[in-house]
Amino acid sequence: MSDELIIPQGLWTGDYYNEGTGKDDIFDTLKEECGVFGVFNHPEAASLSYYGLHALQHRGEESAGLCVSDGEDFNYHRGMGLVKEVFDRDKLLSLKGDRSIGHVRYSTSGDSRLANAQPLIFKYRDGDLAVATNGNIVNAPRIRHELEQSGSIFQTTSDTEVIAHLIARSSKDFVEAAKDALGQLVGGFAFLLLTNDKLIVASDPHGLRPLTMGRLGDAYLFSSETCAFEVVGAEMVRDIQPGEMLVLDKDGLREERFAAPQRKALCAMEYIYFSRPDSDLNGSNLHSSRKRMGKIMAQESFVDADIVTGVPDSSISAAIGYAEQTGIPYELGLIKNKYTGRTFIQPSQELREQGVKMKLSAVRRVVEGKRVVMIDDSIVRGTTSRRIVNLLREVGATEVHVRITSPPFKNPCFYGIDTPDRGDLIASYKTIEEICREINADSLQFLSPEGLIQAVGGDSSSEYKGGLCMACFDNDYPTRTDFDGEEKFGCSC
């Protein structure tokens, strides 16, 4: 018998197991695009980054990469798949140096390939440059077109590459060139830029994408989420401020600016869904914030029921809060199978509809004969909510009342979330009553914008919308969006 691995046709749709399928994915949940992790001045920079990226794996499962410098040379490795699949002991041992930047990535459908895996590595007149980012550059298509017209040759389809070209074309020193380049970008982004002697860290002028700084002894660490600091034993210092640029080199840390801060607009979906519950945002723990969302949801739209259950994993905290506020028992009515990956058997539409059971199971003995309050974080197209409601009904739920701990998701995101077109967002063209019928629920209510701001600890009286970007709910985008190529939503990385 041959030892060759035989993969049944149709077992998964991409070139590798974790490749995303865009609109064809069984679950229409939103996709966060990526996470970044950086280390400066630590002899085990590669190992720290490996563990940091592992903690950020939920932010990107399609590719992972690390670039490490010893002050003279770059050592880097990138690959498709999960962090633990891309790196092994030998690869990590080969990445020698005391400074590094790392990246985990999702991509939009059709753009998933190794050439776009980050960090992106370049050689230019002053040496080596590595770039890792989380977010989306709204005006990148226009900048890219202008650069190509003047002779630039792009090596990837990633919009992140534009910053490398802008820096390379500048006659100024690296720091000033980086300032000028960052100042030309519009959108939501968190950048890590590494050369052999410097690390530059920058956040967009609105702070749309999260980025934090930590310390471990004499080393500085940077991460998309604070949960990665806990994993490596580091202490969080502070968030990177909107429009701020930090420069780290042999002289230490220098705080500068590439742009004046605009109105603070951190992505609301980081609180609702994307970030891990053990992370902190703006000094607020995510688990606690989501519990408050559930409590406020209960105050705004109480319904008499027998049990409360949350759609795992992001809605469990809110479900606990709803149960505590109402006194209705919280139960594990839905169980998640953690080993299905992101894509599933898809040989027919009929089996695709059944595919939800590969990822979620309803507990019959808990749900049967009960009136259920099902807590979830969002409704995108409505297909997933309908499948889960029907799953609960199939095991005997007598009523299913759906409570969503976010306002209706009506508008696409320009700043780093892979969202469908506006016409595919069910809340953009159906009323709440119509959505309720579409998902086969007995009742449906969404958290109010005011309730969301209150839950995350924002002060709507002193800070516009509590410092949140809520454009996906109210169409009020903090930056210009009238650029050529604006139809490309999701992450430019």
TrEMBL record:
Pathway: Purine metabolism; IMP biosynthesis via de novo pathway; N(1)-(5-phospho-D-ribosyl)glycinamide from 5-phospho-alpha-D-ribose 1-diphosphate: step 1/2. Mg(2+) binds at residues 314, 376-377. Its EC number is 2.4.2.14. The active site is at 34 (nucleophile). InterPro entries: GATase_2_dom, Ntn_hydrolases_N, PRTase-like, PRTase_dom, PurF, PurF_N. [4Fe-4S] cluster binds at residues 267, 413, 469, 472. Binds 1 [4Fe-4S] cluster per subunit. Binds 1 Mg(2+) ion per subunit. One of its GO terms (biological process) is 'de novo' IMP biosynthetic process. It catalyses: 5-phospho-beta-D-ribosylamine + L-glutamate + diphosphate = 5-phospho-alpha-D-ribose 1-diphosphate + L-glutamine + H2O. Keywords: 4Fe-4S, Glutamine amidotransferase, Glycosyltransferase, Iron, Iron-sulfur, Magnesium, Metal-binding, Purine biosynthesis, Transferase. One of its GO terms (molecular function) is amidophosphoribosyltransferase activity. Residues 34-251 form the Glutamine amidotransferase type-2 domain. The keyword Cell cycle does not apply. Its cofactor is [4Fe-4S] cluster; Mg(2+). It comes from the Bacteria. Catalyzes the formation of phosphoribosylamine from phosphoribosylpyrophosphate (PRPP) and glutamine. In the C-terminal section; belongs to the purine/pyrimidine phosphoribosyltransferase family. This is Amidophosphoribosyltransferase. It comes from Paenibacillus anaericanus. The gene is purF.
